[in-house]
Amino acid sequence: MQKKCRNTKRHRPPYLLAMTLFFTITFAPTLNAQGQLPPIIRDTEIEATFKEWMSPLLKASDIGTNSVDFVLVQSDQINAFVAGGANIFFYTGLIKKTDGPDEVVGVLAHEMGHIAGGHLISTQQALERASYESILGAVLGLGAAIATGNGELANAIIGGSQNVAIRRFLSHSRVHEASADQAAFSYLSRAGLNPSGLSSFFKKLENEELLPSSQQSEYMRTHPITRNRIEAVDALIAKSPLNDKAFPARWNDQHARMKAKLIGFINPEQVAWMYPKDDTSLPARYARTIAAYRLNDIPTALRGIDALLGEEPDNPYFHELKGQMLVEFSRVEEGLPSYRKAVELMPDGPLLRIALANALIQSDDPARLKDAITHLDRALVKEKRSTRVHRLLATAHGRLGHDSLAKMHLAEEALLQQRLPYAKAQAESALQGFKAGSPEWIKTKDVLNQIALMEQKMK
C-alpha cells in the first residue's frame, strides 16, 4: 500500500487559474483542520477489488467498461465524488462505515449516475496532464472557497462566470442526487445485483440531518439525503426481484479483507479491540499482521505474513506485503524475491512493478537499474498520472548517466504536479540532449507545448 500527500501543506500555485476542473458539483469539501491535503492511497488489492465490483455496473451503463478510474483517499470523513473527468474519489472513512459490498457498490453506482448524467462543470483549462494529487488539491481548494463563501478565491480557481454556474447548480443539487439515485438503481438492476445497499447506506446517514452542518459527514453535506429520497429509493427496491439476492461470497470476503487492510494500515492501534484474539478469520489475521508491521513488531509481522502465504501461496497481494515489509525493514535483498513473485503472479499490475523497481533501485546495484527502468516503462503505460513513476525513472536514468532522460522525467513529474516553471526549465534542458525527431525529443516537446498552452490560458 502506497500513500502520497501525507502531512503535506497545500500550496496553491498562481497558475491554478489556468486549470479546468471537472467534478460533481454537489461536492464542496474542505482541507483538513491543519490545511493539509489528505493522502491518496495506491493499493493493488483494493483497486483490483473495486475494478471487479465496478465491471458489471459499467457494462450495465452507457459510460464504457474502461472509462472510469477509482482513487482512494485516506480520510476519516465519509465521502465520495467525481473529479478530473471520470475519476471516482472514494474516502476510506466511507468504506469503514459500510457493512458489506452491497453498500459500497450502491455508492459506486450513485457516483456513476453523476458521470452519466453530466453533473459536471469545467473551468478554463483541463487537468488532463495532472496527477490525482493535483486534482484532489484543486477540488479541495475549490470546496474550501465555496464552503467559506470566499468568492474571490473561488473566482481565482474557476473564473467569475463559472461561480454563477456553481451557485445555480447547487440550488438544484437535490434534483441531481435523485437522478443519480435512479441511475444507480437502474445499473444495479441491469447488472443483476441487489440494490438494497443503496438504501441501507443512506439510512445510516439519515440521522445526521438533525445535526449542525459542522458535525455532519462530508457525504451528508455534499449529497443531501432527504426522507423523500430514501422513500423513493425504497419504493424502487420494493418492486425489485433482486432485493433478496445475496452478493457473491467472494465479494463479501474481499470487503472484509479490504476493511481489515485499511484498519491495519491506518489505525493499527485499533486492531486489537476491533479483531479480538479469538477471531481467527483470515481478515482478522490480515489486520493483525499489518498492524504488527505498522507498529514495527518485525518478528510478529513476518510470522503473520508467512502464515498467510502458507494458506494462499499464490496470492500476489501477500507477496507484495512481505516485500514491502522487508524493504522497509532495510532488508532489501530479502524483499526482492517477494516483489518478483508478486509481479510474476500478476504481471499486469503496474503498482507491483513500481514497487519492485523501487526495491531494485534501493539495492544500490547498478546492474539492476536497467531492469528497474524496464518495469517502470511498462508501469507508465497504465500509470500516466503517477508522479512516482517519473521520479523513479529520473533516479534510475540519473544514476546511469542518462542526464537528458532524467531531466525529461523530472519535467513530466513537475507537469503532473502543476509546477510549470520547474517543468519548463527541466524540459528545455533535456531537449538539448536529444536528437530532433527522436521519441524522447517528441515527448519533451509535448511537455513544452502543454506548458505553453497552460501559460497562454493564464494571460
Overview of this protein structure:
This protein has 459 residues and is mainly alpha-helical. It folds into 2 domains: 2-238, no CATH class; 249-458, Alpha Horseshoe (Serine Threonine Protein Phosphatase 5, Tetratricopeptide repeat). The chain has 22 helices and 9 strands. The strands form 3 sheets. It has a 5-stranded mixed β-sheet with strand order 1-5-6-8-7, sandwiched between helices. A two-stranded antiparallel sheet has the order 2-4. Helix 1 (44-60) packs across helix 11 (249-266), helix 3 (101-117) crosses helix 7 (173-190) and helix 20 runs antiparallel to helix 21. The longest helix has 20 residues, at 439-458. The protein is globular. The two termini are 41 Å apart.
Question: What structural keywords apply?
Answer:
459 residues, mainly alpha, Serine Threonine Protein Phosphatase 5, Tetratricopeptide repeat, 2 domains, 5-stranded mixed sheet, two-stranded antiparallel ribbon, 22 helices, 9 strands, 62% helix
Question: Short description, anyone?
Answer:
The protein is mainly α and 459 residues long. 62% of the residues lie in helices and 6% in strands.
Radius of gyration: 23 Å
Helix content: 55-70%
| Average pLDDT over all residues | 83
Shape: globular
Strand order of the largest sheet: 1-5-6-8-7
Strand segment count: 9
**Main beta-sheet strand count, sense and barrel state:** 5 strands, mixed
Strand content: 5-15%
User: Please, how many helices?
Assistant: 22
SS-derived structural category: mainly alpha
Number of domains: 2
